Amino acid sequence: MSRIQKLDQLTASRIAAGEVVERPASVIRELCDNALDAGATVIRVTLEQGGIRSIRVQDDGRGMDKADARLAFEPHATSKLVQIEDLDSLITMGFRGEALPSIAAVAHVTLQTREQGTAGGVELRLVDGDIIAERELGMPEGTSVLVEDLFHDMPARFKFLRSDRSETQKALDAVTRLALARPDVSFRFDADGKTQLHTPGDNRLESVAYAVYGDAVARRLQYIHYDDPDGIIRLDGLLGEPGLTRRSRSWQTFVINRRPVQVPALMRAVEDAWQGRLMRGEFPFALLHLALPPQLIDVNVHPQKLELRFWNDSQIYRTVRTAVTEALEAMSYAGLEHSDTAAESAQTDTVREASPPTAAPAPTVPIPVRSPGAAWQPTPVREASRPPLHAPESQPASAFTVPEEAPLQLELRDMAADTPTAAPAAPPPRDRLLTRLLEARFRGVLFDTYLILEEGEDVFLVDQHAAHEKILYERLLAAADEENQDSVWKRQPCLTPLPLSLTAARRALLDSNLDLLEALGYSFAESDSGALSLTAVPAASIAEPVGSLLELLDDLEEERLAPDSGIRHEERLLRFATHACKAAVKAHDRLHEQEVAALLEQLVTLREPFQCPHGRPVLIRDSRLDLERRFRRIV
Q: Are strands 349-350 and 619-623 parallel, antiparallel or unpaired?
């Protein structure tokens, strides 16, 4: 008896549906993709009971005639390509040729469609993949697909669906990703009679971000643009200001040639660019659109079209990391400007960039529909803007006296090598806001930890420990980048050499990182017998120098064993930020006013002065207007 049998069409279609139709969100994504490929400018998604009872997707796209409508439910039928070579220039939302027949195999489907320029439309009703009814009808141009009773004959699949609320949220997430990828299209998402998302479709990234995330988030986003020097990759998008983070990557969206995708290399590039600006476990906001020639990517490597394969992962990584790094360096210095505090009067603002006095044009992302054989051209995008921030009216400042207790004589020059004794030149014009910090009056110390400074209508609180820690860390970073062996901190010679007992593997690890350890302030000596001893340690930093060195080697060993750790240079240095803490001024160390001035003078020269190496804020700002609102002196 033959054991090999050919499956019937319905069984084969339901098996194929397992790769494409996982839950209601999968159906919505496939139907929206088809609508986008049909040139739709308005898409409306309506759900009942999480999409399990019904899903309706309506669009104003090109529509179909009767023959194409029938053919669309045949396996491997598509309008997106003709031959295999067309895959090299595919610019649509992808192709598998199985979406509509797969959906029809696991649900009841009603298709209504009217081709542009025709007098009327056609309606098809399908059960188990077969057309059971067909009629002509009057309707607007476009297409409407109603999917009912999903998995009605498949209890094994139905039982894996979540609650209505959970399925609704997953469906909303799918539509949201598409809306962020296509700001030129208006999306509306209704669930059980309530509108949960409605984007304007005005081709502005800022507008869709406002619709998705709300004003409190949208006003803290900055537009970025970057062109790859090789002329291959173009990047546009929105980046959150420092402090705008979440405990998950839900605020990260990546779009390749108008397709929302999940690409680990892009996530890693963004987060590597943020190294030293984020606390552990926090993830920044990023909405990045990349445009590159379609022949350099493979869009058909994932059943649900969520992943891509690049011709050169490392170039994509470098481009995104460079773009985000440059954007962060440009934005982070402007974080001390006055802001509109109407929505923030109950909390202190973290440092963030101010908008220019005159709003720049909003982003425009024209996305014309192209045929499969059309030549690829990058799409121009105009720069985005946020509403201008308004400064409060000028009012006289109140006094705050410096504590009369004698401060601890703690000289910063004893901790940091080559600390200038003379005040440096005034910051360049680009650091206008940091100049305000230098010009602020020192008013005292709060809780023996936070320096209080007043400038104009603002008060600044500076964490003295975080500030000095960042100074030491950036000196470490610069020393390592320059590959010199000058100590970041002064070396403190040991009274007698301290013997080190290391295994062969640990000794090899030390030898391979000798330049870095010497930059930290360690010195070593080797006897004729090959025994190693510690002859110097970072000055004023380590109570147990041998134990601290072994901790460093443990960090290096952990980094060596971690996947792809070899190319994360700044992340490797960040591992030693804890050791920089040991050398930094501590909370509760009392600083003299001259030492405060020296600390600020060094702080404003840093590349990124607003976050410590662990991502905590170095300083925060509050305004007199904020305080008076809290005390109800003004309304």
A: antiparallel
Q: What are phi and psi of 418, to 5 degrees?
A: 60, 30
All CATH 3.30.565.10 domain ranges in the chain, comma separated: 9-196
Q: Where in the chain is the domain with CATH 3.30.1540.20?
A: 393-635
Rounded Cα gap, residues 458 and 590, in angstroms: 24
* 252-273 average pLDDT score: 89
Which tokens go with 331? 């934005």
3-class secondary structure per residue, 409-461: CCCHHHCCCCCCCCCCCCCCHHHHHHHHHHHCEEEEEECCCEEEEEECCEEEE
What local confidence, expressed as pLDDT, does residue 203 receive?
92
What are the angstrom distances between the C-alpha of 390 and each of 223, 355, 599?
20, 10, 30
Q: Partners of 289 in the beta sheet?
A: 236, 255
Distance CA 591, CA 584 (A): 12
pLDDT at 315: 84
For the sheet with 450-455, list strands across it.
349-350, 619-623, 458-463, 450-455, 441-446
- pLDDT bracket for residue 391 (50, 70, 90): very low
Contacts 24+ apart (CB under 8 A), 226-229: 226/319, 226/322, 226/323, 226/326, 226/327, 228/315, 228/319
Alpha-carbon span 423 to 436, nearest angstrom: 16
Q: What is the CATH T-level fold of the domain 205-350, as seen in this structure?
A: Ribosomal Protein S5; domain 2 (3.30.230)
DSSP secondary structure, 282-316, as one string: -EE-EEEEEE--GGGEE--SSTTS---EES-HHHH
Per the model's pLDDT, the better-predicted residue between 138 and 430 turns out to be 138
Copy the structure tokens of residue 110. Answer: 């009603």
Element (H, E) at 532: strand 532-538
Between 438 and 411, the more confident residue is 438
Distance of alpha carbon 598 from the chain centroid: 35
What is the token pair recorded at 509? 């690890």
Specify the CATH number for 393-635; select among 3.30.70.1350, 3.60.120.10, 2.40.128.110, 3.30.1540.20: 3.30.1540.20
Residues paired with residue 112 on neighbouring β-strands, in sequence order? 123, 144
Kindly report the CA angle at 178 between 140 and 35, in degrees rounded to 5?
Answer: 30
User: Nearest to residue 385, comparing CAs of 419, 408, 413, 356?
Assistant: 356
Per-residue pLDDT at 565: 40
Query: What is the phi/psi pair of residue 602, to 5°?
Result: -75, -35
pTM of structure: 0.64
The H-or-E segment that residue 480 falls in is helix 464-481
DSSP annotation of 490 reads -
Kindly state the DSSP code that residue 85 receives in the 8-state scheme: G
Q: Phi and psi (nearest 5°) for 370?
A: -120, 150
Residue 504: how many CA atoms within 13 Å on its side-chain side?
Answer: 0
List, by residue range, all CATH 3.30.230.10 domains of the chain.
Answer: 205-350
Q: In angstroms, rounded to a whole number, what is the distance separating the alpha carbons of residues 153 and 546?
A: 69
pLDDT digits (tens, 9 = 90+) for 585-607: 666 677 888 888 889 988 888 87
Q: Three-class SS of residue 496?
A: strand
Residues 494-503: what's their mean pLDDT?
87
Please say whether the beta carbons of 301 and 356 come within 8 A: no
* CA distances in angstroms from 23 to 15, 18, 29, 182, listed in the order given: 14, 10, 10, 23
Cβ contact 623:338 at 8 Å: yes
Mean pLDDT score across all residues of the chain = 75
- In whole angstroms, how far apart are CA 620 and each of 277, 299, 329, 334? 14, 45, 18, 13
The CATH number given to 9-196 is 3.30.565.10
